[in-house]
Sequence to fold (145 residues):
Amino acid sequence: MRVMRSVVIHAPIDKVWSTVRRFDRVVDWNPGVTDARMETGSPTEVGSIRVLGIADGTVFRETLLAHSDLEHFYVYDIIESPLRCRNYVSCHRFIEITEGAGTLGIWQGEFDCDPADADELESIIGDRIYRDAQLALDQYLREKA
Fold:
């Protein structure tokens, strides 16, 4: 299954990328994440593992699979989570909008799941994780400006 959400972030790409590029700083701008720490490696080192504490008390462990300061993206997988999916790989990418100094945030993931769980996972991952987190990032950057 593939899930994708895109949001216009009202900040220049350099400001957006400097906020999100470190794999452990998601806690700064995503209100759904209460704790983020590196279990292994550094925050931009491919192969590093982060552990996220989520507001509902659950925990995610994720591996950084790719990271590009030049192209403004990172790719990660989920090692452990409460989500009923398998083989989850996600890419969070940012593209400069040249008119108006904004940034397009695109967050997409692919994973396997039981057909009975597909609609619920579409909502949880697509709306509550991808869309809502990017809207929170936009709000965070507006308040920080």
Helices lie at 13-20, 26-29, 118-144. The chain has a mean pLDDT of 97. The longest strand covers residues 86-97.
